[in-house]
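Example (one chain per record):
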Amino acid sequence: MLDLFNSTLTSVWLTMAGVPDSLNSAVTVLQNTPWLVAPGEEVDPDTEAIVQRYLKELATKGLLTNAQGVWLQTGPALLASNQGTTPLPAASLTKVATSLVSLATWRPDHRFETLVSASGPIQQGTLYGDLVIQGGGDPLFVWEEAFALGNTLNRMGINRVMGNLVIVGNFAMNFEVKPDKAGELLREALNAESWSEEASYQYQQLPAATVKPKVAIAGTVQVVPGNGVAGNLTPLLRHYSLPLSQILKNMNIYSNNVMSQSLADLLGGHQVVAQKAAELSGAPASEILLANGSGLGVENRISPRAVAMMFIAIQRYVEEHNLTIADLFPISGRDHHGTIEARKIPTASVVKTGTLNDVSALAGVLPTRDRGLIWFTIINRGTDLEDLRQQQDSLLQRLTTRWGTVQPTPAAIAPRQPLQTANSVSSENRNEILYKPAVEVGNPQ
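Predicted structure:
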């Protein structure tokens, strides 16, 4: 599991968070003590005044103050809190918990594997048998991955399957988790002559030189329960997903519910995620109450303090792997797509949004000149979601006005790897060929 309180990391964190150097002597104590900041501790008067102004503005619009959650801390020092330890509907801030437990379970460089096999001989470009897909839980297997898989089969000399497309194990495609429907999407993707408008559109987003796959499957899609099929199989190729860190980055930018739920299911379900997230972050288990792994529904409740602690735990862990939290979550001013596209969040903040019909949430880390890194959580209850978002952005802007901005972005929260997507890095390069025919044949025209 995570060694969250490594002495070297703790020392780094005291510095990164803007805590005076004199506190570095407390490293030994912090090694065995979670950064559990209690709301009863003395707060910062200036920050508290800014937060109280924010809450009063919400109150003038008829919103109950005790329904609004705010937590601001820098290092182990509390700056301001409102309902900070109360579990509140957190919407997609739940994905912070899923991200933390995923990293601890698989490591940032983990790749999910999809194995492709044949149940019969291959002669003159035709597979006389079934094409068998053994899924390994890849939550980001999309059109581009399937096109690349088809092109690799073509390069291996396979352009026709006389049997069925057989789906085994945990296989999903285009965020469709039902294996029969995912299989139909894959069957379509493998043969350009059967593409829908959606498949054609996705192909057009690829580099101009990308070849169209042509693997025609004569049979139907068959789903085999469990993780095995009868008879001997010949492994053809193994497809590797993007690294987990990149999967999480894509998931969090677009707040993809299916991806997050798929990961939570692989981890053992929402109860396991909640329990492990509390253990890994040091937050009380009573402050992380989950009903699923995505955040859909007000039943998922997390305290503002627990959200901040999970962010801190993620940052401290990935630092050991030469990454930062910016490699996993959207960066204001840099990631121009997804849920923060139209937001006015201070530049270089690393954040996660959350939205339900009557919930708007924002959490992450705000870099400041005078206070270092401010870890924050804002959870609002109300129905005017656009106004709530504007008020959240305004609160963060006031904090940067008070404590100053930082240029350039602090190295502690600057991304260390470029964002990868299914079509920005060739999916075909992530196919490992396991079977080679006597004579390789080019892609059929």
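Caption: The domain at 113-241+423-433 is CATH 3.50.80.20 (D-tyrosyl-trna(Tyr) Deacylase; Chain: A;).
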